[in-house]
Amino acid sequence: MTGERDVTVSMTVNGVSRQRSVAARTLLVHFLREELGLTGTHVGCDTTQCGACTVDMDGVAVKSCTVLAAQASGSAVTTIEGLSFGVIQRAFRAEHGLQCGFCTPGMVMAVRQLLADNPSPTEPEVREGLAGNLCRCTGYQNIVAAVLAAAASGAS
Amino acid sequence: MYPASFSYLRAASVAEALDVLSSSSDDDIKVLAGGQSLLPMMKLRLATPGVLLDIGGLRPSLGAVSVSAGGAEFGALATYRSLLSDPGVALRYPAMTDALRVLADPQVRARGTIGGAVAHGDPAADLPAVLLALDASVVLARSRGSRTVALDDFLLGAFETDLAEDELVTGLSLGPALAGQAYEKFEQPASHLPLAGVCAVVSLADGVVSRARIAVTGVAGRAFRALAAEASLTGQEPASAVLAAAAALIGEDAPRPLADIHASGPFRVHLASVLSERALRRAVSRASVGSQ
Amino acid sequence: MGVALPRVEDAALLAGRGRYVDDVAEPGMLHAFVVRSPVAHGTVAGLDVSVARAAPGVAGVFTADDMRDVGALPGVRGVDGLELPLLRVAGDKVRWAGEPVVLVVADTAASAADAAELVEVDYETLPAVTSAEAAAASGAPVLHGGSGNVCFRERLTSGDAAGAFAAAAHRVRQRMVSQRVAPVALEPRGVLARVTGGGGLDVRISTQRPHDVRRWLSRMFGLPEALIRVVAGDVGGGFGAKGPLYPDQVAVIAAARLLGRPVKWIEERSESFLATTHGRDQTADLEAAVTADGRITAIRGIVHAGLGAYLTPNAASIVLRRLAPLLGQCYAIEAIDVELVGVLTNATPVGPYRGAGRPEAAYFTERLADLAALETGLDPAELRRRNFIAPDAFPYQTPTGLTYDSGDYRATLDTAMSGYREMRRWQAVARSSGRLAGVGMCCFVEPGGILPGEPDQATVTVDGSGKVTVAVGTSGHGQGHQTTFGQLAAGILGVPFADVTVVFGDTELAPFGHGTFGSRSTVVGGSAVLRACEAVLAAARRVDAPMPLAEAARLLGGLTATASADVDGETYAFGCYVCSVEVDQVTGRVRIGRLIAVDDCGVVINPLLVDGQVHGAVAQGVGQALFEQVRYDEDGQPLTASLMDYPMPSAAQVPVTESYRLETPSPANQLGVKGMGESGTIGVTPAVVNAVVDALRPFGVRHLDMPLTPEKVWTAIHEELGA
Questions:
Q1: What is the pTM of this model?
Q2: What is the ipTM of this complex?
Q3: Residues contacting residue B205 through CB under 8 Å, at least 6 positions apart
């Protein structure tokens, strides 16, 4: 078996089947942003910490900067663009849970997972559950309020 | 942010993966499982393997989690997330659940694997302390057979393990779950890795400690057993003073401690002491409840 | 006005439809990678880009030789006015680890990164110095030639400090450090530059100051401003650090011109810790003269400011115009005698970072105030009360030459008092069982509404269907200006909020302004919007009979007016922050219990947005107090150059803020508003440090420098125990 520097990846993204030939080293986040033009998923760091790149891969929130596009071949990926404007987004807006908006798509994807795993979180559980997402603008207070509000209106 | 170029291989079976590893004269090959340790290094070009062997497709053979009264078998590709949601793990190995809850973050736990937790030899990973205290064994496969080695013998030092170039970690096994277990962590505030993490596993019989295991991570080049502390507990009633005295002995078995801008060596050892006492208390109280 | 409306910005951002600079692509676009100095101080002994030039996908590799036609970055210098070249060639010096040396441009970002590894640079290293005091001392390594590294040395004196100290019943002296920190906006810096027909430039840049960027580029490239378009688009946070124009960005723009193709450069996170300006880095040795009844009559001493490897345009004013004149804070302190020394060091250059001089002033003075309370035996709240400038003294001329527009410091303290008393009761109970409990406060002023040059403008247009467009010269990047200015215009014009669209951040679409920084937008931008609205209303009155604005616009074929801001000076928001902390004696870990923030920023347009600004600034202030510090080793090597080592707070590390708001209008502008976006960084840091020192009172710890890490606190406790 010899390896290849380029790979053909096939995946479903936001319900649409996509196939491309890319360099094997292509990160999923770059595949989504550059190949597919889905720029809602953001790159905020290079140490897998900030979570701005969070997407849903086969039903679980992952950091797309730390997945190769090749690893996602055969998977179903949902990005922020693939979500309808639902309870979580409405709660973020109502509670002023975003300012510059850069962390926001990843935050929404992570919150979606948090509430799916724990539909009625306590405040400390929300803060712990956001361990993988950094925000510099909001100080998290209104993000936490948004998550609790979304939970209360039955987000999951 | 952009890894150096590499050749990519996706293994379709364990046999194929082992074949690639054994026949590769190129020792520049790295195995990719969850990628949550390897890919960050590659993005910063701290690791530049020429060949990446992706074993992610082998989850059907290597992803199983099986827990019973007799012990546990974890396939190397079992993710932290799957372990965290496994009721058998929660019931019989609560120290693992303690550690899994505070390890990394939810997204990383969705991809990171238990095989990756040991194969890398990261001195600041949470799970090795728990696995060490639970007397874990690592199952390794190569083309011409497999072997099982105690985790204590597998971990050699910082980013150094007994993994041979043609070997693959295929799983971990634990003996029967015993009694009280707890994991305590003091995190480095930026990376959230443990500056010190301690797992205590305590068995009680007739009101005294019949067996104690205390393992420490984050403090030295590899997770280590606090043998002096363990010995001091055996045969003793688990009273506060006894636990405190044991905790004070943590430093005796610490290999030269790590030191960086986040904590000095002596402070790490001190934290390990503090956490040992806390972990022992919780382990004893869980042992007393006797859910086993 | 005054309504907590949810933001109009949010729907697009929540759906992932924001357009940040990296989201934009141009046909034929190339990608840049900056090769930076790995050494903190040295000379480029050899530079060979030939291998890199030949690498796959490379369109160009640029050094200082390619940048000679570009004018110097305005306001950027070493000592003695020495201007700095863009990039480097052999023989040049490098002065900080991270200084741009070579620019590689290639067809993809990945191939640019690959080619960058092929650039061969040899350095002869020199000893490095990163501490301001050490760099100012004789014998220190000299960065720019000449006699030393002191870039400016000024003395601010007013009143009779010597007399005040001679007469003082108490003298309270303390050495304090406001440590170097990094802004860490979630979106790193970036720029996409394109040459337009006619030799102009189209520049998309993650910036807080698009019009000023256009002006600077015009000077540097010798192009008329009319040929340059600068677009900020959506900007993922700035906090001051995206105000300046940087040499790496200018080099990218120059490369785009040389190649005749669009070039994009996006900073990487670890790179940003080296390349984006840092904040604070001031070491103070200050003394307060205090009367027997607790009045502070003078402050004297010296402050060393570490500026980094070169002086950036705002760095001197941060120290000289923000820090020093504000040491009086809310207090009627008659005399001051402070020496301010700005020193160049082998570190990332310092620039504006949320607060920019004001957090340092509040920190130094509020620590002295607590030490004065300790000396005199007064409760810290009482000591502050005795020193406040009286409510009837406004406008108040400070001895340092500032005019505080309005203030009622007793009111904010009084609002915090019931919470303060609850915290003291909690503390007493906790202490009785041996717990280390502390309470701390900070009273502060926050200057805002800065006007660095000609006033910002706004253009208000009402079309024939009654739809209103407001274009303004400030440049929001998360503050919610589309909502705030929309509310303002709707209120003044008497039209529905939904009919108003607010535009900014694009030099083609918005009239001149200085952008958004220094808590200025509501004051200055708001004033411009107000006056433009008034001009439109005046124009509408040309119609014979009174009628709704939309009708008038229809009859007149549309209405438009452009007006400049007209403000009487800066505003001085103020507040009182109080917090409780508990210290774990065995680990040194600090936990903030309650945090009460009382802010008075005058008239409030949207309270939801004001609270959001407080929360965000509080998180950064807590970050400085407990977690964050940029650190270098003795060779000037960065030790905190990634999020793995630089603890930017996460959700579990930030306390809940209980916010209260008072409104003392500003007489300095027609709206009565005051800038307030930085208050959290100013108010919370001293409150937390004062609380921790208070918690450690049983051990006699007098002061502890930030960040108050567990090891630092634990060591302080145990040193006292051992002593």
A1: 0.97
A2: 0.98
A3: none
